Each structure stands twice: as structure tokens, then as C-alpha cells.
């Protein structure tokens, strides 16, 4: 019996090896078998290469990324399962097909072809775009094209790696809308709003500028000390604010600010960290100008004292004529 191409593994002093043997009977002139001629070939390197190739194929087929190899005529030469699944096709239906047939001529000409042409000039190309897949409908994809070279380092086509980043894209869009909304509130809020990092001003809204008389450019990058009439006031506010933040996450104090023109303002200042576990990311603060409120309260106190101490009788009634207040003189 002739045995050709038998592959066997055996142990040697150098470790496991593979051989391919062929055994052919040797016959005499009468056709009688008088021996066996054997041929052996060491195929260890080939088997190792096949094992590596099998591992690569397993990795590629298991990848959730869409992977494909195309030639210079935009014809599919290979594609992994994820790529085929996206189009509800099996490998045999996709291989030999063209990108135009798969994606449509308009999408091919406007999106795929310009980027693929750049790749086949030797450039690694990355771009992001919305794709419509029969299996998944619309997805936002991160696409990379790599030039595919032959042994003579001549470009023969390109490799496609497509990753679904739809969820990330939707999160980015939601974040952008949220940031735009917060930015609009930040700009139009009647209360002064700003951010400091290590008590250095890194952001202020227009109301802060109105309150202080400084422009935004004059405040950004400056230490908040510029807003306080004395170093003692500045340090006391910092100590008290950070004490309250450590206790409850937010700090509120009444303080005084020094306007650019030298006048003094009464300010209700509230602060809270952007990240409660890491103050170095910044502290958001609000500043409410209560100067007029404080002045009104002061004037009301003066008036109340004057009424109480008046030598004349003073009566206060409501609109119905009911007596609501009588100063001590009548009593």
C-alpha cells in the first residue's frame, strides 16, 4: 500500500517537531515487494506558520470590528463574520462583489472612494461617518483604511477596519446639547457665575463683569485676591468657604468685593467643587450683589429706630383702616 503525505508530530532534543513522510513499496522485476522506500521532510516551520494563521483567523472571525480586504478595483477579497453579518450576507456572497453593489454608487463615490483612493496612494486614512446597514440600520462608524502591500511592497488594495461608535456619538451629541444649554444659562444668568482653580479665576459670565467693572480678559488668569479689598478678607473667605465645603459640599458667606473703580460691594458668595472628591478640578462660585439690599436694610433699621424714638404718635393702618402699628409714644 502506498502512503503519501503523512504528517506526524514527534519529540526531539530541540522539542516538538513535525515531519511529512511518504512510503512507497519497492518491488523486484516480478512485482514482488522486497522493501519500502521512505521519504521524510521536516515541516515544523510550516506547521507553526499554519498554527499562527489559524490563530489570526480565529481572532479576525471573533472580532466585533468589521474587517475586510479589497483590491484596487474595490472588489472584496476577504471579510470577517462581523462585516458579512452587517449586510445579511455569507462570505461567499460578499467575496467577489464590489463596494458599489454593496453600498450603492452615490455613497461609494461621495464617502468611500475619496478616502480609499488616498489609502491606495500609501496613506493610512481614518474618518467617521454614518452608515446604513441592512442588519443594523443606521450606525456611526469609525473607519480606518490601511494600504495592502504584496511581497514587492507594491500596493494591491486596502484593508478596512470599521468600528461601531454609535453609542459614543450619541453620548457626545447629548453632552454637546447639555453643554450648549448650560452655556446659555451661564451667559444670561442674572447672578454672577464663575470658576476658580486654586483660587485663580478661569471662567466668568457677563454678570461677574457687570458687578466688578472688569472685563473678562482682565479677570481670567488672575488670583481672586484682586476682588477683595484686603488680604485678610480674602483669606477669611477662603478659610470659611473651604470649611463649609468639607462639611456639606457647599459653602456660603457674606463678604465684600472691591470694584475696579475702587468702590466696595456687598456680595453673597456661594461655592461648590466641580468634583467633590478632587478640588483641583475647580470650584464653581456664584456671586450675588446684595449691596442695595444691605443698604435698604440699614435704612429700614434707621427708620424703625426713628419711629420708635419719635416724640410724636405714629399710627400705621392697612387699606381697610385697621390699626397695625402704634409707636411707643402712644403706649
Describe the model.
With 331 residues, the chain is α+β, with helices and mostly antiparallel strands. The chain folds into four domains: 48 residues, Beta-Lactamase, CATH 3.30.450.20; 106 residues, PAS domain (Beta-Lactamase), CATH 3.30.450.20; 100 residues, PAS domain (Beta-Lactamase, 2-Layer Sandwich), CATH 3.30.450.20; 32 residues, no CATH class. 36% of the residues lie in helices and 36% in strands. The protein contains ten helices and 15 strands. Strands 5-4-8-7-6 form a five-stranded antiparallel sheet, with helices on both faces. The chain has a five-stranded antiparallel sheet with strand order 10-9-13-12-11. A three-stranded antiparallel sheet has the order 1-2-3, covered by helices on one side. Strand 14 and strand 15 form a beta hairpin. It is elongated. The termini are far apart. The mean pLDDT is 85.
> Which residues form runs of ≥5 with pLDDT under 50?
none
Distance between the termini: 136 Å
Q: What's the level 1 CATH class of the largest domain?
A: Alpha Beta
What characterizes the major β-sheet? 5 strands, antiparallel
What proportion of the residues is helical, as a percent range?
A: 25-40%
The rough form would be described as elongated
Mean pLDDT across all residues, rounded? 85
Q: β content, as a range?
A: 35-45%
Q: Give me the number of helical elements.
A: 10
* Spatial strand sequence of the major β-sheet: 5-4-8-7-6
What structural class results from the helix and strand content? alpha+beta
